[in-house]
Amino acid sequence: MIGKTCHFTGKSGTTTVVGVTAQLALDDAGLRRLLHGLPPVDQVGADARAARLGTRSIKTTAKAEALDLAVRMVDLTTLEGADTPGKVRALCAKGAHPEPDQPECPSVAAICVYGDMVATAKAALAGTGIKVASVATAFPSGRAPLAVKLADTAAAVEAGADEIDMVIDRGAFLSGRYGAVAEEIAAVKQACRTGGHDAHLKVILETGELATYDNVKRASWLAMLSGADFIKTSTGKVSPAATLPVTLLMLESVRDFRAQTGRQVGVKPAGGIRTAKDAIKYLVTVNETAGPDWLSPDWFRFGASSLLNDLLLQRRKLATGVYSGPDYVTVD
Amino acid sequence: MSETKKAETKKADAKKTPKAGKAAKAAKAAPQAAVVTSPAPSPAPAPAPATPRSSVRKTYKLYIGGAFPRSESGRSYVVTAPSGEFIANAAQASRKDARDAVRAARSAQAGWAKATAYNRGQILYRIAEMLEERRDQFAQQIASVEGVNVAAGYAQVDAAVDRWVWYAGWSDKLTQVLGSANPVAGPYWNVSSPEPTGVVALLAPARPTLLGLTSVVAPAIVGGNAVVVVAPDAAAVPAVTLGEVMATSDLPGGVVNILTGAPAELAPWLASHLDVNALDLAGIQAGSTLARDLEVSAAENLKRVVRPAAGYDWSADPGLARVKPFLETKTVWHPVGI
């Protein structure tokens, strides 16, 4: 039971953690003491627990509910160099009415695009209540001067983005310059408040590049301490992208973080989740790890593009009793 | 049976163990008593009782997407000869296996249709070559599954090999025979050519096992379709072996997917599947309620249906009767003289 033993027991103690959130005055050495004081992750145990949670069988009415919840949690994403305003508008239309002939089918949570497409998406989604998320800070590599990253973020916020998906500086994190990572996240969080806006900040850890589960846990805590509203697994441009054990670990981190500080942080696995079956495995893991408080689009999202089509095919299979096919959903 | 015997031997061994010391002593004492004068050479060890070699039995699994998975349901059934004798255990496919097979067929179909007709012909011919090489194995299987003599088994294998070769030859001739250049009253060059319809679900006949399966699969794939074929009951054994032939014949994985089990269980899911484009009811009894129900479900997305024909002679020259239903005609109007 990894989950039960992961309470934060760093030397600094609870009060220090709250203090860090407030002022972030720790230097590299202080952050190192704090993050390396986190209990280590049992990798074998985490993999085993994730595998076990993935075997739950969700059927009939529970499945119908899970599918609808998963649709509501999708951040429908297009992050290609070849994106055009027309493609973004088509994606927005699909996100708003995934099943045009079934008004009871819910909309997705957000449309996730590059910064220059925010205005297009915002206009296409006017009045639907669907959020516009924009990647920023030199996505996906994050290799740009801080001033450029902040300008990138501010531009997306000015254009109307409700959510900003930033990438951390993995190079700095892996070389132990935790202070630089923390300051950058805090600065981007500040940029999210440009012009009186208050965009939600999702921090992409790019777990595929962090090498170990211990690093994933440290990066999660570092992001949360620095002001992240969401922690997100991956950009989707690096393999492996989201995996169930990594998401399990991040869910444990947000649960422990709330227990320690009282602040709730969301989780977004992104990349590689293509089937409804996978999505349901993630929902089971959310419920069993972080708890039902996170079973809402406000606290858990799927970053995906092809997942939505499979969710719709499964909804139809449940409704009509016959298998549907790719001829009956959009090509994207 | 050999396993039970083995277990019994083990039991007997276990019983002996406590007395083993005594027995050894007795064994030592006996030769000494007999040959008193030569104490030096130790008694020749008694030849070890020949342990019967336990045979390695084959599991007949499904053939989906170029791999041989077990049924997702974990079920299997016993294949018996008409005399009731045990032949093998075969995987009993479920509706989810059918769904997976359709998905595999769909993803393989475009690539198979895009291969040149010449290349498809070569691959079909390769299947014939590999089948010919396994003549003995198939003849034995047909003989035991159908309860006929081995000579009849050989005759059927030969007919099946010939049929693969026959359809292989058709691959680059279909367009000439089924296509046309149409005279039209206008400044157009107008041509029609046959195109594959997509994914075809086939319900293979129960008898003849190998020839029946060949006669439904070959005409469907020669034109560029991918197929999901249900081999009923005892036909599973030659069908899965034919899958092994296909897996080693350069046929891209997923072009032919073989499900074994009960057609009455699988057919309704394939007939109602919206990603299946055509249905061959060869193995369903003509005039039965099942045949009727399948046609009704198939109408949902306008599948092309080949009806079961009572008393169909599988050894007769098939012509193009099973090729044409799975081809669409594409007609192009090309402006000329402007």
From TrEMBL, chain B:
Lineage start: Bacteria, Bacillati, Actinomycetota, Actinomycetes, Catenulisporales
UniProt organism field: Catenulispora pinistramenti
Domain of life, per lineage: Bacteria
Residue span, Aldehyde dehydrogenase domain: 72-306
Protein's name in the database: Aldehyde dehydrogenase family protein
Stretches with biased composition (Basic and acidic residues): 1-16
Residue ranges with Low complexity bias: 20-39
Region (Disordered): 1-55
The entry's keywords: Oxidoreductase
Biased composition range(s): Pro residues: 40-50
